[in-house]
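Weekly puzzle thread! Below is a chain. First person to post its structure in token form gets bragging rights.
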Amino acid sequence: MTLSTSTGAIVSSHQNTIKRIGFIGQPNTGKSTFFNRITNAGAGVANWPGLTVDLLQATIEIHGHEVEFVDLPGIYDLDGFTEDERVVQKFLEEFAIDLIVVVINATQIDRQIRMPLQVKSLGLPAVVVLNMADEAKRYGVQIDCVELSDRLESPVYTISAKYGTGCAVAINGITRTIEEQPHTYQVQGLVEHLESAPVTEEYMESILEGAVQMPSVTSVTFTNRLDKWLLHPIWGLPIFFFVMFLVFWFLWSIGIPTADPVDAATGWFQERILEPVISPFPTELQDFIINGPWNGFATVLSFVPLVALFFVAMSALEDSGYLSRSAYLMDSLMSRVGLDGRGFVLQMMGFGCNVPAIMGTRVMRSRAMRLLSMLIIPLALCSARLQVFVFILAAIFPNQGGAVALFALYVISFLVAFVVAGILSLSGQFKSRDPFVLELPPYRLPTIKQVLLNVWGEMKQFVSKVTVFMIIGASLIWILTALPPGAEGLDTLAGQLGKFFSPIMDPIGINPFLTVSLIFGFVAKEVQLAGLAVIYGLSNDALGIKLSQDLTFAQGFSYCLFSLLYIPCLTTLSTIWGESKSLKFTIFSVVFSLGTAWFVSFIFYQGANLFS
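Winning reply:
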């Protein structure tokens, strides 16, 4: 039995066994940061029946009663049309809720007040949290929380989720509100209700008038002054690429030396502990353990510091507000090839991992744009490829020239993506017809704690995923290099597999051993290094010396180019299939990436030999 209200919500006579609180808000409002403070970063990913994405969920005991907290995707409008907005709409319509926490950016309250008013219109009980209150005060935004609370008919709290200011008061307020809330709600016809009773600009202004005072639009802030240079129509892009060059120079100069102490530690462990422990085993089994699973695991460990530094740099740039501006800078260029700034943002996300970037294409309304983005995102220089490039470039560039070569791969990934998108959009099917809307947050100084939390979350996923692939991949490669018994080099199964593709790979300078590593790189790009170590039967240091002797610059860089552009890893490919819901398109993406990788590597290798 349900009791209808005069709004879009219904009051259910069946109470939730565990009270449920949903968090909603626009992207970049600090919603998830505040959610993590409440849950002590203890939330886990949960699958909700009928929803296309997994949501962060945590159950916490409050005054002897369990309460469920759910972090919903960041959205701009409750009656919008993007995939994430549909997820929120479906959640509110299909799952009973006891309280909504609306998190908005206090510095942009004049634009973001719409969402609390939409929640009010639906008749859902809510608590409004004004985040970044410290920045709002600094910019001259004045908010009368008591008056605003009366007008919204909901408690209003000001906080700084980044520094923790006001969070305890807000959490106590949320706790008190949920304890006093007698009903459980669901929404019927959410979009229809909001369309029949829209939140108008006049209504928003009437709510804010007298309760919120915004600074003069003519006032000059630090962000305005910095944007005069960083968003300059001429100097903006050169400055951006210079910043990215500094990132890769930092990774090269600081990241490579960090592998040495890790290699020393794993070498000591192998010599002093592992080898004595397995010495009673048969020789073949000892060889398998050392050169298979252990070699793969040791390779992962040696690159953990490098990848961690990469995530530190990218997290700092993102938290500072600069990456959002890169999308604005690139929008005019991307629009010429059928995409917009969103495509660039997603490719920047692909630096960490292609998988979340491909899932992020859901924000695009046009299916053609989503498919085009799915084709070019895997061209991004992801963290898995990064360790491969650093290792190979260090072998063929024993000096700081490797930093320039690494940056060149980054630039090439964008140039190839740009050209490919332009060619594919010639049909007109990929042309964007949707306006590109992007909030440019004020510049902020990233906090060490927040950067480290971001890096910790990324590294947990990276290490857990990569270790499994690395150990399995290295073990399979050992088997292929050990069979048939007594065979060595190209006479092994791995060598024969590499020789089979020689007619295709020889014109781009990739020998059979490198070819085998590329085949296993399809499982996960990190396996390429473990594969090379197993194929050559050498440790990381010895392998680097061997490759520096065997490979010319043209061969090494051609290998890097092919690794950059060919088939994405198995996880990425499965994500493309899941997001596109088309096996034909997924197969096309494989063939397309292989063709692109071979063509670019061929042009480079043959050109390098021609002019050498």
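Puzzle host: Confirmed. Bonus trivia for everyone else. The CA atoms of residues 225 and 231 lie 10 Å apart.
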